[in-house]
Amino acid sequence: MDTYEGDSDRSRDLIDKLEPEPKSKDLDLENQSRRLSHHHVTAIDSSSTSESVGRQIELESENTIKYRTCSWQKTAALLFSEYICLAIMSFPWSYSVLGLVPGLILTVFIAGVVLYTSLIVWRFCLRHPEVRDVCDIGQYLFWDSKIAWWATAVMFLLNNTFIQGLHCVVGSEYLNTMSGGAVCTVVFSLIVAITSFVFSLPRTFSALSRVATFSALFTFISVLLATIFIAVEPHPAGYPEKGDPIVLAIPAKGTSFITGMSAFLNISYTFIGQITLPSFIAEMKEPRDFWKSVTAVTIAEVIVFSLVGAVVYGYTGGQYVTAPAFGSLSNETYKKVSFSFMIPTIIFLGVLYASVSARFIFFRLFEGTRHKGNNTVVGWAAWAAILAVLWVLAWIIAEVIPFFSDLLSIMSSLFDSFFGFIFWGVAYIRMRSEDYGPDFYKTRGLRGWLGFLFNVFLIFVGIFFLGPGTYVSTIHSMILFLIPSSLTHLHFFLQASVMSVVRSYQSGTVAGIFSCASNAL
Length: 521
Hints:
It is a multi-pass membrane protein. By secondary structure, the protein is an all-alpha fold. The chain contains 21 helices and no strands. It has a single domain (70-506), classed as Amino acid/polyamine transporter I (Up-down Bundle). The chain has helices at residues 11-15, 49-59, 72-83, 91-98, 100-127, 134-141, 146-179, 185-199, 205-232, 257-271, 277-281, 290-320, 332-340, 343-366, 370-373, 377-400, 405-436, 440-443, 445-466, 473-482, 492-506.
């Protein structure tokens, strides 16, 4: 298969300033016996990306539901709604732990790494326009292994369902804050899940992109208002119990590893969202324009995240900052007004991830049938049933793990290691090996070595993120006994996340499982 030309030439400078590339070899799905009924990848007969995409558009031209209809602007709206979200309001807390200077440096660095890996995702999808989601990529990357496909699918669905659950938690926080805890928190969480289910029903990203624009705009207004209100208030919530706000350029003396890693993972999780990118690209009319979408969003992320985090931390200090930062507002009216503008993204971001998961299941159940691309009773009933199951599971997760920052850290440790780093380091190496042979890093000179080493570094960062186990006393002792001391650091990230959860329960900041206690800010 020929690689992309024209506009996509500009992407080479964005990744590793490559010279024009030779024709890349497509991985022949039929020859690799990938066409299994439960997760086959549609073969494309065309010899170029444009022809392949054009063929897909032609095949669904007679359908009443058309999927490849997103422009790069609509895709940008989806990305804005995914990244410009409530997690922005955890940045002030992260900066209070890491110190303002390291926090800002990490923000820019992580944004750059995520942009780099996102462009690798894009380039891989251009070579293989038949790819529909990250699970297909997982099988491609790891030697056409069915085990790799299933492992990726499990992580993919768990990650997305956890995010849905997180938004049930945040939705109940919002309703408790607005109502003063008028109803049991479990009921509020269920209301959010039911509302989100209804908004999840549209079956194309093109339709969802309209709501995504609305969601991103209201989120921006929300964080802008919260930042302004915190700046104009005479003092933050809780003042003067802990003295005047203290702002540090570097971490405070005595900051624990667990607290520092939790802050770092909060920042990382907000940026890392490559898991959805293949699904978005698969519904673009012109996938070669995706770089415009992701570049625009990354620039906006760095500006908004850095300004909000720094300004809010500057006015609240380390003693009074909360996650999310709405809790730092002492004026209840300010808190409710600014938080109210966040309700669209509280609903929509969970909706977006539910839609990504549902189409993953739905496409594999109804591939090759009229139910996939037409308004049939069976098709809509199945789509609604899949969404219902996903939201019920998400609601249960929301009630079993009812906390905010610690949930972000757990998710980063478990899933972002693969979907944020490991997959894309492997993808880069696989693509270069296809183009230049397995010794590409030797034959391509300095650029070959730099690209190879940096992507190996990304793979090891992902492994370091993951960690081999949880932190309970028995398992921890077994790790210390079974694993050489030089490797025990690998479990620190997950250990940090889990111990942070334990401390939250011990300190009484978590209400409990299926609790009616208010979780209002």
